[in-house]
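Troubleshooting log. The previous structure file for this entry was overwritten by mistake, so regenerating from the original sequence record. Sequence copied from the archived sheet and checked twice against the printout by T.R.
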Amino acid sequence: MVVVAHNFSNSDGVTRDTIAIGTRHGPDRCVNPDEALPTSSPLAIALMLVCGLVGFALRYLAREHTNDDAFQFLIPWYTFARDHGVGALGEAFTNYTPFYSYLLLIAARFDWLGQPLSLVKAISVVFEFGCAAVVAQMVWRATKMPLRASMAFCAVWLAPTVIFNGAMWGQSDSIWTFFTLVSVALFMRDRNGILPFAVAFSVKAQSIFLGPFVLGMILRRRIHVAWLAAIPAVYLVLAIPVLVAGRSLGSVSSVYMDQVNTFDRLFISAANIWIFAAGTPYAIGVAVGVALATASGLALSIFIARSKRTGPEFILLVACVSLMLMPYLLPKMHERYFYAFELASIALSCINPRYLPFAIIAQIDGVLSYLAFDAGMAMSLPPAALCNTILALYLVLDLKRGERGFRFPKLAWLGFAVAIAGLFSHLAFAGSDSNVSLAYLLATGLAAAMTLRLIKESQRSTAGEPDRSR
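Regenerated output below.
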């Protein structure tokens, strides 16, 4: 462990003390700030148990909260599955892939335990727990520190966006994210993660956000290109029960195309670049967005294949970049589509605390986006999109310049907390009013400025410390 105290003067002559932690001894070898300290496994287990109970309590309290999607889609789908049993598989009674139909049928077997909404949410709870376990496993294998792994589990299990997505809305993003995280975890262990990625794609098309990462790992590891055939093959294998039940192959294979054609707006509800270009003609915007995402994805894949950096931290970092860039650049995205990035960034921050701002800002941006839909706070989206822009920029720059030492800038954290508190307070008092007031502009500008400062300060190379990542 290296802990260096620096006393230095900045340009205006003010002396500051900075504690530098986690400097490098080699490529992608993070010196953990607490690796010399004894780590208590009983404490880690106790923390997981307490947080686990708190998480279940929160989900119980939110059991009756929902939105229009549940009444229009989720509950009717569940009711159909319950009333028709296995025979429901012969009908396209959801606009999701067959995998979700199977889960609804399983949930319907426990209909006597609770209300339809609670049982639909229970599906998400199972996979949320799985996501937390996978993230904890990622951190444990990378650090061998039980307390950090326990904290990673708790952070995912209690993450505000996770609570919003499943416990409050009953959405199913935890399902495809679970298999996506398993894929990343396998690649972090130098194993082939294409099969779980194929399963994720068989659950939801949003798993394609990991596509540039997977392609890059195929090129990097020289995995035979024939493995790509596993993606459609797994989709068809998982569709066998519905095909046997009488549903047509055309119906099964057109699910994603039907979903793509559901909306004809470039901006739906995601805090991404298209909130600033929502007035672009639809056809032109779709073409530009797809081309931009494709070019960026290919560039990331080539970077992954050519990079000399190694180690689980680097693999997780490039996965985070893939999961962030795709929903940020693509049009027609929902607020929920940053879900996988939000959880992967938690794992990254637990492996190396210099990425802590990314995980926290991702959660805040996610909550701002969810509030726009859940509470009608439409003006919460622009600051979330602005902060996501800063996140995307710094993730890309981080890949380019490599790992550096990190520090915890207290003033930046304080300013960020004040800025975000002010923004949330203004939005809460303003409610769904979409008028742009001076107070809103000030709060948004301050939140964005402090986001920029927080990330910049936390990633700045420690004074006098050479960059050892090259």
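Residues 1-39, 461-470 have pLDDT under 50 and may be disordered. Archived copy saved in two places this time.
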